[in-house]
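Lab channel / #folding
Pinned by the channel admin:
"Please post every new chain as: sequence first, then the structure tokens as a reply. Keep commentary short and put observations after the output so the thread stays searchable."

First post following the new format, from NK:
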Amino acid sequence: MSTVKANTISPDDSIQDITLGASGDTVTLPGNDLRVNTVKDKGGNTLWISDGSGTLSNQNNQVAGSRKLLTTNTVSNQAAAAFTSNIDSTYDTYIIEFRNINPATNSTSFTFQVSTDGGTSYGESIISTLTQSYYYSSSYAIQRQDGDDQVSGTGYVNLTSPNLGNESDRGGGGDFYLFKPSSSTTAIFWGAQTSWFGDDGASEFFASGYVIGTVGPVDAINFKMASGNLSGIFKLYGLL
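Reply from TO:
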């Protein structure tokens, strides 16, 4: 095996490519270690840029993955967790991932509402439906939560039934989807899946519905408990 030692290898012509090996050959890097901060394709399109410490930027949509993290909101015994920016026409779908949610008050429900004025007010007309599956003390069922639905109401919408416990070892998490929130002419659809651990068992809730009206794009969302404060981690993603 021959060894070539050089500080810089360049093509004779700027429009030519440098080819390592022939078709079918395997080119081996020592320790599989290729160290570059900017990676581009043959057309000169940037695929990604690293800052040298592993943090990527300028990621091309084709390689960035399905979710792009926009912001994180961590709350501890606060009244609500709101996102009042980053929800616009950039993405067709936004996902709020919530983890380690724990209410300060016993026997309450996890709720949300949206805003069309950047979070100044929350009270859009929403239609919702809620279904629960649960297993508690050898009792289990799948049932629609009729009393927790909302029909063209402007109050906060239940994403769970009102039986969440506030013990330190209880809590839950899930994902909330908001579809095409920038629309001002059609209903804006949403859906959520949440899992909760409570007294002697677990529950899973599926909620969905839509925001009625054409008053303007939805640009903010607020999560809170029906009563009392909450703690948890909320992450807002744009779906590429």
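NK: The first strand starts at residue 38 and ends at 40.
TO: also worth noting, Residues 170 and 198 are 6 Å apart (CA to CA).
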